[in-house]
Specification:
With about 200 residues, the chain is an alpha+beta fold. The protein is built from 3 helices and 8 strands. The protein is elongated, with a radius of gyration of 23 Å.
Length: about 200
Amino acid sequence: MNRQAFTMLELVIMLVTVGVLTATIMPRLERDPLRETVNQVMRHIQYTQHMAMVDDVYRDGRPLWFKAMWRISFRNKNCYVVSSNIDLDMNYDREESATDPLTQVLLYSNTKCKQESTDNSMMFLAEAYDISRIDFSGSCGDNRFIAFDNFGRPHRSLKRLDDYLKKECLITFVRKSRKAVIAIRPETGYITSYVDPR
């Protein structure tokens, strides 16, 4: 006999199989603000390194030219900025900030971490992602920034031209009881991350 229809048992087995496959294959649909923070900051670190290699700030006859290197700087109240200090005054001005290639908005936050109408809201990690603390350890130093030279090498400070990272710089983000760490390797600036599981 040539059957052309499913039996009820075959239909139930097929629906259960599809349901199990869907549950195991589909990614979690809920938001993970800590992971979003890490992904965004890693992208901005890579973009800072890219800007440093593309925009060589060396100026002949300017002895402190290296202070203008591109950097990603984290402020004390959990916001950050991507900039090059062209005027060497050690202020991170809006005009010296990079533009996010994805959103075409400046990667800027003011020194008080108070968002203004023209600021990029994603730069304010406490408000955007509920990040309560950002810690630096390893060879990062106490400066709360990483600068890159025109070869893409990470620097821990801008006091001297040769103040490179000597070992990994670890940036830890804390949200509630979870932590995430971004590690920046010396010499290459290669970055990796780890996020506490839920």
